[in-house]
Specification:
about 0% helix, mainly beta, three-stranded antiparallel β-sheet, four-stranded antiparallel β-sheet
Amino acid sequence: MWSGSLGFCPLFTYKISLDGNSVNLIKGAWYPYDPYKMIKDNDGNYVITGTSYYNHDNCGYLTKMSPSGNILFSKRYCANNGSRIYDVAVDFDGNYLVSGTAI
């Protein structure tokens, strides 16, 4: 899996085969995101973190996506002057642990 954007461009998530010959678009979102981390959780879903520039507010976000690309939830976390979520992990109970900065 690869997820990325180019600054204020849309977020795209692709599934790429091990040999690099097969590329399938899983999900495209037309909001200005900068993704930083993607992991697979205990249920086989993908969790993506980063910064959202929606409404120019610079908020950290956490998005959970099924393998087929359905958004299961997406939440933005905002501090007074903005925030970023850089990393995510899953604990033994299946909870998400995130780290980042408040600007």
